[in-house]
Amino acid sequence: MANMTAKLVIAAALVATAGCAKKRPEVLPPAPEQATPTPTQPDYGNQNTVQPGSAQDFRQSVIGDTVHFGLDAYDIDSEARQILDSQAQWLMKYPNTRITIEGHTDERGTREYNLALGDRRATAAANYLIARGISASRINTISYGKERPVAMGSDEQAWAQNRRAVTVVIE
Amino acid sequence: MQTLLKRMALALAPIAALAGIQPASAQVEVDVVGGISAPMPIAVPAMPTSSPVNTAAGNTVELGKQLSQVITNDLKNSGLFRPLGPDLLRPVSFDQVTAPAFSYWNTTGAQSLVQGYVRANGDGTLTVGCYLYDVFAQNELTRQGFVVQPADWRRAAHKCADTVYTRLTGEGPYFDSRIVYISETGPKGRRIKRLAIMDQDGANHRFLTNGQSIVLTPRFTPNQQTIVYMSYENERPSIYAYDLNTGRSRRLVSSEHLAFAPHVSPDNRWVVFTMSTGGNADLYRVSMSGGTPQRLTSAPGIDTGGSFSPDGSQIVFESDRSGTQQIYVMNADGSNQHRISFGGGRYATPVWSPRGDLIAFTKITGNFRIGVMSPSGGGEKILTEGWGDEGPSWSPNGRVITFFRNARGAGNAEIWSVDLTGVNERHIPTPLGGSDPNWGPLRP
């Protein structure tokens, strides 16, 4: 329904970069809202400007776009809470934005079970944001099970990275 | 790109069925508990032709040799035979097809002999004759004939191999059948997945989807008109039905919720599947024509992997309601849910044997392995020793199980098969990587 192409591009970019996601300090202050009218053409000369409320702004503003889970678990731990709190703050600031939360698993479960487990994780992250005051109507969830790992190895470290829920701003 | 299946009018009809009445002196010893005692030596010389004719499938001389090669491969792949194929045997004249030179065949060490012929008919079809002889007793055991379109010549060979296999083992036929699976290529994090179909020996391979959307877990309807599967089309993962006659797909479950794990009922009317709402996955069923799904389970936790018993009265599924994935059986309406697996480890992806006497599953105890148990939970037996063996599916006769073998690290998954006795583990070759194989019924 929403702009699928854009969403797919974002998803692809995330997959490409999510492995090196690190904690960033919050950017402050936010750029003034509606600073510039939307140009009719992309402004290639001004690439460093991050559009407030954009997916890029989200990734730069929050502690992380990804929360991780224990083996076969979907509970939101204290580290995940901090990350989701920062996401909730940003979402409060930009009430017209919508997000998709992607749930993922490691490869040590069967395919169909993992689809359900990925859904549990995406739902757990979504429920946390809803409890923080974000409207459920702004949140879409999707489970990829074990189909889209970010770490390609078959070891504990890779599996821990792959047990995740990733928040993507829909553009 | 997408090849549409133009279904030929069903042109594979037996023209003669004269079952041998002789006592079976040549009989393969099949021991389901312990394994295969010794593969039976069997001779499969090239099939002669009444007259060399060029057909759409090649010259009938060459075709006779290819038919025998397909039969040889089928019998060899079963693990129950040690065939001598056309490359190792002297040619047979057309006259000898019904009058074998038993004195010669005795010297080859073969206990049985498969002879036949190929003939191009005036209407463009082919006739393939198939004769099975007992070399020791020097008599005919059975004969069959098949009329096929040239494009279906391999099916005639599979039917002949099925005739031989059935007569000598007492098992049901399975060579004339297909496998639908997921073809996989590309890096592990962005793997391109396509629906693909092939004969059980890997021949006649075709891609059915173009790889734009992730597709998973295809399963034949028993009438083989349709393949139900999961697709991420429009990033709204749900269950779709691919029509093998038209090459078109339609969405089967219209709900916004995540729907997956489809299996079709034996009467082709229902699809049991899993839908996850609010993080809670339960089994539902929906009519093959669509409509509103009916809920079958409601336990908290993940209920998935539902598959019908051959008579359609029961459904086997997996649930983690006890804390770990275990196998449960219930009536097809959702009543009388009870757990049947109690061994150590987790159990997943249960599928009922077409014979009804066994349930195959993935067992997770660190490694993933394929196993079987009875529908009441007894007699558990582990068949494979892989690192990541997953997703069993039964051959039409309930004798062989296909599954996929995940690779450690970034490698491709592969399609494998194993005999019910745990022997004869075999890689089924596919053009790219492969997963989620589903073995279709015997073709009509």
From TrEMBL, chain A:
Entry keyword set: Cell cycle, Cell division, Cell outer membrane, Lipoprotein, Membrane, Palmitate, Signal
Signal sequence extent: 1-18
InterPro entries linked: Bact_OuterMem_StrucFunc, OmpA-like, Pal, Pal_lipo_C
Chain ranges of the OmpA-like domain: 56-171
CDD domains named among the record's database cross-references: OmpA_C-like (cd07185)
Main location: membrane
Membrane-spanning intervals of the chain: none
Superkingdom, natural source: Bacteria
Disordered: region residues: 25-53
Membrane topology (UniProt): Lipid-anchor
Polar residues biased stretches: 43-53
Biased composition (Low complexity): 33-42
Family, similarity comment: Belongs to the Pal lipoprotein family.
Function description: Part of the Tol-Pal system, which plays a role in outer membrane invagination during cell division and is important for maintaining outer membrane integrity.
Subunit structure: The Tol-Pal system is composed of five core proteins: the inner membrane proteins TolA, TolQ and TolR, the periplasmic protein TolB and the outer membrane protein Pal. They form a network linking the inner and outer membranes and the peptidoglycan layer.
Protein name: Peptidoglycan-associated lipoprotein
Gene this protein is translated from: pal
